[in-house]
Structure formats: C-alpha cells, structure tokens
Amino acid sequence: MIILFRHDDTAQINIMTGNFILRDWSMCQAVWRSPLLPLQTCTISSQDSHGPFHVGSGLRFKQDILLYLNSYGQRRTGTLTAELQKYDFSAIRAALVASVPGKQNVRDTDPGQETLWGWPGFRHVLRSITPRNPKAKPRIIMQCSSVASLSKKWMENFQNMLRLHKCSQSSPSPNSAFSLVFPTADEIRRSIDGYATGGSIHMKTQTPAQQKQLDFLRPMLCHWAGDEKADVKSAKDNGKTPIRQAQRRRAAPHIKTYVRFSDKNMDTVDWALLTSANLSKQAWGEETNGKGEVRICSYEIGVLVWPALWDDGGDVQMVPVFGRDIPNDDDYKNVEKEEKVTGDEVETTKDEGGEGIIANGNVQKRTWVGLRMPYDLPLVPYAEDEMPWCASIPCSEPDWMGRTWPGFGAS
Fold it and tell me: I need a surface site. Which of 62, 173, 290, 322 has the fewest CB within 10 A?
C-alpha cells in the first residue's frame, strides 16, 4: 500500500497486490486507487468519529484503515495515522477487508462497532450485499498466486462464507459454482520472465497430504492463460461464446481476486475483492476455536466493491471489462439481451442524460460499472492429466528463454 500526501492538500490511498521488488512488476498485478481525499472542512464530534458507520461508506472505510494502520504500533505508523485522520473519506465507495495478526473473539464482537479481521470481516461485508438475482446460481471465482496447506473442512467453511449475501442471512445458497484460477507449469514456462516468476507462485503437490488436498481442489481448477487449448475448448464446449481476452496471459499472476458473478453466463458481477490475501489460513484466519476466537498470522489488505455503492437513484450493473478500465457497448450488450429473453419489462434507451432504462413509463438512470478482469472468460478447466505449477518440482523442458527449472530452493 502507498499513501500519498500531495501538495494540493489532498491524499490518496493506493492498495496493490505487488511487493516492492523488481520481479513482481513483470507479473500481473492490480491497484485500487481512492479518489483524491480533501482535508476535512469541519470537526467531527467524538461520537460521530466512532460510528457505527454504514458498510461501504467512506466513514467506515476511514475507521477500518486507521485501525489497520494502528495495529502496526505507534512507533511505526503513529505519525501516518495522525496525518491521515485529517482527511475527508466521504468520496470513497468501497469496503476495506483486511487481516491483522493475533486472535479476535468473533462471538463477542459487534461488527457494527468494531472492525473484524480476516474471513469474519469479509463475512460481515458480504452479509450487507444484495445480489442481482438471489435465486440464480452464482459463479464464484477465486484466483491467487499461492495456495497453502488447507483442510477440506476449512475450505468448505470458506466457500460457505463466500456464498453468503444479505438475502441469505446465516444460511448460504447451496448451489453456487466455484472455480480456482491457478497457472500450470506450461503457463509459467511461457510467461514474460519464464521460470523466474515461478518462485513467487506456490502450490505444493508432492506429499500424500498435498495430493489429498489437490484431489478436493481439482474439480475447481481452471487455467490462468489457457490459450494453448482455449480456442478449441471455447468452440467445442461453448458454441457461439466468444473468448473475452483480458490481455494478461503472458504476465504470470501475482494478483489475488475473489469475484462473485451473478450467474453461469458471467456477464454481471455481484461483488469483487482485490486483495493481498492468498488462499491460506495464515491470511484469512483459522476456524473458530472453542472460545469463539479466530487466529490470524499475517497482515493483509484488500478492497471489496459491489454495484449498489454507485446507486444514486437508478439501476446499477457491474460488468466485467477486458483490456480496458471503462465499459463500452460490447461489455453490457449481453445483459440487455438477457433482459429481453427473460421477459423483464425494461427497455434500454438513451436520453440526453446518457444511458437509461424505461420501466412503467418512467425514465431511470442506468449506471454501468466496469470491473477490469485479469483473466480471460470463459474459463478453461484443467484436463485430467494437467497439474498446477509446483515450484519445488524441477522442470527439464526449457522456458522460452532456454532456461530450465531446478526446483525452488535448489542450489
């Protein structure tokens, strides 16, 4: 994360997935940038400064990020948090989802008053989000650069948490489809830096316990690039479905994203998280123990967004965008077709104010929010004989620069 204090008396928060090492920046990374935050023009009362604040609001974001920074200790971040406290966060439309090392009692903590870390904090935000169609079968895609040692029970609990939404309360939808995007050795071999990037991407598959983990992950595994077979599989399995290219195939993934698409077509997004947190208990937290505590081992930080954050009195849709930041007609034409096919009584039109919809004779504003995608759609599942990249396994086949891989940690 980089926090900028500018000469024009504004501040900007930049949350990113890359570390400050050269190698990371030849890999696929992402950054969330806040709007420019002006200095506060009025003093906030002591009561107002402690909430409770609405999830997704700038005030809640400010509360959470200041608590996150304070967790590093006064000596390290005291000056930073004191300075950041002076700025107005009201322009931010996002929720902070972060992790802080330590134990937190999730049974006795009121998430409306106190920030929860790790998966309990993620869960709290998800329970405030209404999906586009609560009855539809969503597609939830997890994508990361490392998968740690996980028990099947922990993974099932994490998936159940990802299924939650405002309409489900404590009972998640049982019919969600999950995918885990992770590169194969072939995709690492053909990446920009070849095998050199492989030292930053980890999933162990060698021991019996690791093989057992791979067995329950395998049905979810999908390619990062998938371009070796993507054209064939798309034409064969998806009929007329075109490949939407993110233009990141050759940049090996160090980015971490968790995205809920509204349905199997993946034309609209219910929510999306950009984070530093890989798929691990260290990052997200252990299962709740008998005392109601969740133990977290690492600092992580991420930003969660969803369509309703841009609801200013009209209809809002979040759509995946490929190779650019702003959506265009190609990105939402499938949504409009779906409305006509399903018989929804809405007609898309354009007025002087821009894009709008007509419903019951009244013109309402329609806002399209673009989500920049790091991987292509549709996804390409692993074949039965394909394996995820394992950095500790030597590779004798040369990468595109003619180098072989001796195995991570080999002398």
Answer: 290
Kindly give, in sequence order, each residue whose CB lies less than 8 Å from that of residue 151, ignoring residues fewer than 6 positions away: none
| Encoded tokens for 295 | 């133990």
Per DSSP bridges, beta strands 10-16 and 37-38 are antiparallel
Contact 319, 355 (CB under 8 A): no
Nearest to 374 by CA among 8, 13, 28: 28
How high is the mean pLDDT of the chain? Answer: 88
Max CA distance (Å), the chain:
72
DSSP characters over 354-399: EEEEEETTEEEEEEEEEEE-SS-BS--BPPTT--B--TTS-B-S--
Here the tokens at position 75 are 């000596």
Q: Residue 150 corresponds to which amino acid?
A: L
pLDDT in tens, 293-345: 999 999 999 999 999 999 987 789 999 999 999 888 878 777 766 654 444 44
pLDDT, one tens digit per residue, over 13-69 is: 999 999 999 889 999 999 999 999 999 987 654 445 566 789 999 999 999 999 999
The conformation of residue 244, written as its DSSP 8-state character, comes to B
User: pTM (2 decimals)?
Assistant: 0.90
408 phi and psi angles, rounded to 5 deg: -65, 130
DSSP E strands: which ranges in 262-353?
Answer: 269-275, 293-296, 300-305, 315-321, 347-351
- Are 282 and 296 a contacting pair, CB within 8 Å? yes
Cβ contacts of 394 within 8 Å, gap of 6 or more: 404, 405, 406, 407, 410
Question: In the Cβ-directed half-sphere of 207, how many Cα atoms lie within 13 Å?
Answer: 5
